[in-house]
Protein backbone atom coordinates (compact mmCIF):
# COMPACT_ATOMS: atom_id res chain seq x y z
CA UNK A 1 0.00 0.00 0.00
CA UNK A 2 1.00 3.59 -0.55
CA UNK A 3 0.36 5.99 2.34
CA UNK A 4 0.75 9.75 2.05
CA UNK A 5 0.71 11.80 5.24
CA UNK A 6 0.02 15.51 5.03
CA UNK A 7 2.10 17.46 7.52
CA UNK A 8 1.34 21.17 7.95
CA UNK A 9 4.88 21.75 9.23
CA UNK A 10 8.04 19.68 9.18
CA UNK A 11 7.41 18.05 12.56
CA UNK A 12 3.66 17.39 12.74
CA UNK A 13 3.56 13.84 11.39
CA UNK A 14 6.54 12.74 13.48
CA UNK A 15 4.94 14.24 16.60
CA UNK A 16 1.47 12.88 15.96
CA UNK A 17 1.99 9.45 14.41
CA UNK A 18 5.67 8.69 13.87
CA UNK A 19 5.31 5.24 15.41
CA UNK A 20 2.56 4.28 12.97
CA UNK A 21 4.62 5.50 10.01
CA UNK A 22 7.55 3.34 11.17
CA UNK A 23 5.36 0.25 11.54
CA UNK A 24 3.96 0.80 8.05
CA UNK A 25 7.35 1.17 6.40
CA UNK A 26 8.66 -1.87 8.27
CA UNK A 27 5.72 -3.85 6.90
CA UNK A 28 6.74 -2.99 3.34
CA UNK A 29 4.36 -0.12 2.70
CA UNK A 30 5.54 2.92 0.78
CA UNK A 31 5.07 5.97 2.99
CA UNK A 32 5.60 9.62 2.06
CA UNK A 33 5.40 12.62 4.37
CA UNK A 34 4.32 15.67 2.41
CA UNK A 35 5.11 18.87 4.31
CA UNK A 36 2.86 21.67 3.09
CA UNK A 37 4.35 24.76 4.77
CA UNK A 38 7.94 24.01 3.84
CA UNK A 39 8.69 27.05 1.68
CA UNK A 40 11.25 29.79 2.20
CA UNK A 41 10.12 33.13 3.66
CA UNK A 42 10.06 36.03 1.23
CA UNK A 43 13.23 38.18 1.11
CA UNK A 44 13.68 40.84 3.75
CA UNK A 45 13.48 41.04 7.54
CA UNK A 46 11.17 38.62 9.30
CA UNK A 47 8.66 39.82 11.88
CA UNK A 48 9.56 40.32 15.53
CA UNK A 49 7.26 37.42 16.36
CA UNK A 50 9.01 35.08 13.91
CA UNK A 51 12.37 36.22 15.26
CA UNK A 52 11.26 35.43 18.81
CA UNK A 53 10.44 31.88 17.66
CA UNK A 54 13.82 31.56 15.95
CA UNK A 55 15.47 32.65 19.19
CA UNK A 56 13.57 30.01 21.15
CA UNK A 57 14.48 27.38 18.58
CA UNK A 58 18.15 28.35 18.79
CA UNK A 59 18.27 29.08 15.06
CA UNK A 60 20.27 32.15 14.09
CA UNK A 61 19.31 32.21 10.42
CA UNK A 62 17.75 30.16 7.62
CA UNK A 63 15.32 28.37 9.91
CA UNK A 64 13.57 26.71 6.97
CA UNK A 65 16.82 25.02 5.95
CA UNK A 66 17.55 23.90 9.51
CA UNK A 67 14.08 22.44 9.85
CA UNK A 68 14.29 20.79 6.44
CA UNK A 69 17.47 18.99 7.49
CA UNK A 70 15.86 17.95 10.77
CA UNK A 71 12.92 16.54 8.82
CA UNK A 72 15.22 14.66 6.49
CA UNK A 73 16.85 12.98 9.50
CA UNK A 74 13.44 12.26 11.04
CA UNK A 75 12.07 10.73 7.84
CA UNK A 76 15.18 8.58 7.55
CA UNK A 77 14.52 7.16 11.01
CA UNK A 78 10.92 6.38 10.03
CA UNK A 79 11.83 4.99 6.60
CA UNK A 80 9.53 7.51 4.91
CA UNK A 81 10.03 9.53 1.76
CA UNK A 82 10.18 13.30 2.26
CA UNK A 83 8.22 15.63 -0.05
CA UNK A 84 8.18 19.41 0.48
CA UNK A 85 5.74 21.97 -0.88
CA UNK A 86 6.58 25.65 -1.32
CA UNK A 87 4.02 27.47 0.87
CA UNK A 88 5.83 29.34 3.67
CA UNK A 89 4.98 28.78 7.31
CA UNK A 90 2.23 31.14 8.51
CA UNK A 91 4.73 33.06 10.63
CA UNK A 92 6.40 34.25 7.41
CA UNK A 93 3.34 35.01 5.29
CA UNK A 94 2.49 38.62 4.42
CA UNK A 95 -0.61 40.46 3.33
CA UNK A 96 -0.95 40.94 -0.42
CA UNK A 97 -2.78 44.17 0.34
CA UNK A 98 -0.30 46.08 2.52
CA UNK A 99 2.70 43.69 2.84
CA UNK A 100 2.34 43.45 6.63
CA UNK A 101 2.80 40.13 8.39
CA UNK A 102 -0.50 38.29 8.80
CA UNK A 103 0.45 36.36 11.94
CA UNK A 104 2.30 38.28 14.62
CA UNK A 105 1.42 36.43 17.81
CA UNK A 106 0.40 33.04 19.15
CA UNK A 107 -3.21 34.18 19.21
CA UNK A 108 -3.03 35.06 15.51
CA UNK A 109 -1.86 31.51 14.71
CA UNK A 110 -4.80 29.99 16.57
CA UNK A 111 -7.51 32.32 15.33
CA UNK A 112 -10.02 31.98 12.50
CA UNK A 113 -8.53 31.51 9.06
CA UNK A 114 -8.35 35.04 7.58
CA UNK A 115 -10.44 35.87 4.53
CA UNK A 116 -7.34 37.18 2.80
CA UNK A 117 -5.88 33.67 2.70
CA UNK A 118 -8.94 31.80 1.47
CA UNK A 119 -7.40 31.66 -2.00
CA UNK A 120 -4.52 29.69 -0.47
CA UNK A 121 -6.90 26.80 0.14
CA UNK A 122 -7.74 26.60 -3.56
CA UNK A 123 -4.06 26.88 -4.46
CA UNK A 124 -3.17 24.01 -2.13
CA UNK A 125 -6.06 21.92 -3.41
CA UNK A 126 -4.67 22.21 -6.94
CA UNK A 127 -1.14 21.45 -5.76
CA UNK A 128 -2.32 18.35 -3.94
CA UNK A 129 -4.43 17.27 -6.90
CA UNK A 130 -1.38 17.44 -9.14
CA UNK A 131 0.96 15.73 -6.68
CA UNK A 132 -1.13 12.87 -5.31
CA UNK A 133 -1.40 9.58 -7.18
CA UNK A 134 -4.85 8.39 -8.12
CA UNK A 135 -4.61 5.51 -5.69
CA UNK A 136 -3.21 6.05 -2.20
CA UNK A 137 -4.21 6.18 1.44
CA UNK A 138 -4.28 9.90 2.22
CA UNK A 139 -3.84 10.99 5.84
CA UNK A 140 -4.66 14.51 7.01
CA UNK A 141 -4.47 16.24 10.40
CA UNK A 142 -7.76 16.76 12.19
CA UNK A 143 -6.59 20.32 12.91
CA UNK A 144 -7.23 19.92 16.63
CA UNK A 145 -6.10 23.02 18.47
CA UNK A 146 -7.04 25.29 15.59
CA UNK A 147 -3.64 26.24 14.14
CA UNK A 148 -4.27 28.07 10.86
CA UNK A 149 -1.81 25.92 8.89
CA UNK A 150 -3.44 22.72 10.15
CA UNK A 151 -6.82 24.16 9.16
CA UNK A 152 -5.43 25.01 5.73
CA UNK A 153 -4.22 21.46 5.15
CA UNK A 154 -7.39 19.72 6.30
CA UNK A 155 -9.69 22.06 4.36
CA UNK A 156 -7.71 21.67 1.13
CA UNK A 157 -7.52 17.88 1.54
CA UNK A 158 -11.26 17.59 2.07
CA UNK A 159 -11.90 19.75 -0.99
CA UNK A 160 -10.33 16.98 -3.10
CA UNK A 161 -13.45 14.87 -2.47
CA UNK A 162 -11.59 11.62 -1.91
CA UNK A 163 -11.39 9.19 1.04
CA UNK A 164 -9.23 10.52 3.87
CA UNK A 165 -7.73 9.15 7.05
CA UNK A 166 -7.21 11.61 9.92
CA UNK A 167 -4.66 11.76 12.71
CA UNK A 168 -5.06 13.66 15.99
CA UNK A 169 -2.69 16.62 16.20
CA UNK A 170 -0.27 15.84 19.02
CA UNK A 171 0.47 17.40 21.46
CA UNK A 172 -2.34 19.92 20.81
CA UNK A 173 -4.68 17.03 21.63
CA UNK A 174 -3.50 17.16 25.24
CA UNK A 175 -4.86 20.69 25.66
CA UNK A 176 -8.28 19.29 24.78
CA UNK A 177 -8.01 16.58 27.48
CA UNK A 178 -8.26 13.93 24.81
CA UNK A 179 -11.54 15.26 23.46
CA UNK A 180 -11.80 15.19 19.68
CA UNK A 181 -15.02 17.10 19.26
CA UNK A 182 -17.90 15.52 17.40
CA UNK A 183 -15.79 13.46 15.00
CA UNK A 184 -16.91 10.20 16.62
CA UNK A 185 -20.30 10.64 15.00
CA UNK A 186 -18.88 11.53 11.58
CA UNK A 187 -15.80 9.34 11.24
CA UNK A 188 -14.90 5.73 11.94
CA UNK A 189 -11.98 4.90 14.19
CA UNK A 190 -9.29 2.24 13.82
CA UNK A 191 -6.45 1.41 16.19
CA UNK A 192 -3.07 0.27 14.87
CA UNK A 193 -0.59 -1.52 17.11
CA UNK A 194 2.83 0.04 17.64
CA UNK A 195 5.61 -2.18 18.96
CA UNK A 196 8.31 -1.22 21.46
CA UNK A 197 10.67 -0.77 18.51
CA UNK A 198 8.10 1.41 16.79
CA UNK A 199 7.72 3.45 19.95
CA UNK A 200 11.48 4.01 20.11
CA UNK A 201 11.56 5.07 16.46
CA UNK A 202 8.66 7.45 17.16
CA UNK A 203 10.54 9.10 20.01
CA UNK A 204 13.77 9.23 17.99
CA UNK A 205 12.00 10.78 15.00
CA UNK A 206 10.69 13.57 17.22
CA UNK A 207 14.09 14.08 18.83
CA UNK A 208 15.48 14.65 15.32
CA UNK A 209 13.39 17.85 15.25
CA UNK A 210 15.67 19.26 17.93
CA UNK A 211 14.81 22.92 17.30
CA UNK A 212 11.15 22.23 18.07
CA UNK A 213 11.41 20.37 21.37
CA UNK A 214 11.29 23.58 23.40
CA UNK A 215 7.94 24.51 21.87
CA UNK A 216 6.19 21.84 23.92
CA UNK A 217 8.63 20.28 26.39
CA UNK A 218 11.45 21.19 28.76
CA UNK A 219 13.76 18.75 27.03
CA UNK A 220 14.06 15.47 25.17
CA UNK A 221 13.50 13.36 28.29
CA UNK A 222 10.16 15.04 28.96
CA UNK A 223 9.18 14.55 25.32
CA UNK A 224 10.01 10.84 25.48
CA UNK A 225 7.94 10.49 28.64
CA UNK A 226 4.99 12.27 26.99
CA UNK A 227 5.06 9.95 23.97
CA UNK A 228 5.37 6.93 26.29
CA UNK A 229 2.26 8.04 28.18
CA UNK A 230 0.37 8.70 24.93
CA UNK A 231 1.22 5.23 23.58
CA UNK A 232 0.64 3.15 26.72
CA UNK A 233 -3.20 2.96 26.94
CA UNK A 234 -3.54 1.28 23.53
CA UNK A 235 0.08 0.35 22.88
CA UNK A 236 -0.70 1.79 19.52
CA UNK A 237 -2.37 4.70 17.83
CA UNK A 238 -5.91 5.34 16.71
CA UNK A 239 -6.69 7.21 13.51
CA UNK A 240 -10.01 8.00 11.86
CA UNK A 241 -11.37 7.59 8.35
CA UNK A 242 -14.23 9.08 6.41
CA UNK A 243 -17.28 6.89 5.96
Topology, number of strands? 7
Intertermini distance: 20 Å
The CATH superfamily title: LmbE-like
What shape does the CA trace take? globular
Number of helices: 10
Q: Work out the helicity level.
A: 40-55%
Give the biggest beta sheet: 7 strands, mixed
CATH top level assignment? Alpha Beta
Whole-number total of structural domains: 1
Instruction: State which percent range the strand residues make up.
Output: 15-25%
* Derived structural class: alpha/beta
CATH architectural grouping: 3-Layer(aba) Sandwich
Oligomeric status: single chain
Q: Give the strand order, joined by hyphens, for the main sheet.
A: 3-2-1-4-5-7-6
Q: What's the helix-strand series?
A: EHEHHEHHEHEHEHHHE
Mean pLDDT figure: 94
Explain what the structure shows.
With 243 residues, the chain is of the alpha/beta class. It has a single domain, classed as LmbE-like (Rossmann fold, 3-Layer(aba) Sandwich), CATH 3.40.50.10320. It is 42% helix and 16% strand. The protein has ten helices and seven strands. The model has no long low-confidence stretch (mean pLDDT 94).
Amino acid sequence: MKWIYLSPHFDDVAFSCGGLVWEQTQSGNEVSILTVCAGEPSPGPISQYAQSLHNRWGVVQDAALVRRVENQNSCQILGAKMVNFSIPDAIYRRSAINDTYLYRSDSDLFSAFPAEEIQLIEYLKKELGNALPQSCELVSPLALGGHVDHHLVRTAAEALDRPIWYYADFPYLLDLNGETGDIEGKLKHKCFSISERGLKAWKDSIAAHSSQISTFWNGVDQMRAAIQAYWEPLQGLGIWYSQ
